[in-house]
Amino acid sequence: MGLNLILIIFAAVFPALVVILSVHKRDKYQPEPTKEIAKAFAWGLVSVGFAVIPETIMTATGFVEETPTTFVGAAKLSFLCAALCEECAKLLVLYLFLQKSKYFDEYTDGIVYAVAVGMGFAGLENVMYLFSNLGSWQAVGVARALFSIPGHYIFAVAMGYFYALWHYKHTSLIWVLVVPILLHGAYDTIVFSITLDSPYTGLLALGLIVFMIYFLVRSSKYIKRHLYRDIVLLQQRREEEERLRQAAEEEAARQAEEAERARIQKETDDFIAQIFEGK
Question: I need a surface site. Which of 21, 146, 166, 279 has the fewest CB within 10 A?
């Protein structure tokens, strides 16, 4: 069981770490410190607890079906329970983490840290799912590596993208939460609907694949847009630093000139005073 335990945890967490590494490598202008990404990942683990509590209450009270039997039930579970609770939890810990971080100084950083949080959440969620399916953990692990991990990556990129826009351009905070919830809810609705006894299962499976491909490409474009904004931001900072340097040099030259004038004036005053004293 000891070896199996290690393999299960590895199968659950490794895909999440691969995603974090791939996003970190794309942050090429001022890459984030590894320890900061590890902290964000840890915050993602914590966020699972924040999400599980309201999710458990919703299912225990019958507000949503834990195992939906209709498309409406699947949509209700997906949007009002899973997506709402999980994305709120992830945004909460992302906000708490970035408010104290001095390294959040580029647009792309918002995506990097959001993905780290999202992968922390997804990694622990994977562990829970695999241990709940010990008889078929290999198949569950592969399925979640191919769909759930990329899904959480898509939600995280959207959250980080709009979080950075809110932080730097003061756009509406609502998009930071609404877009990931809509993506997450749509994804889960398709996944839960596939498990229903429906003649449209094959069509839904195809729809899931199309959904994943489209938004993975979209996520890549989000990252490219922020990388471009980082170039502009860094250029503006260099120009501002150069302006401040020139201003400092001009101020230093002015002060030196004033000091020289004061010295010459003092020497002149002393010379005149000596002349009058000599008389």
Answer: 279
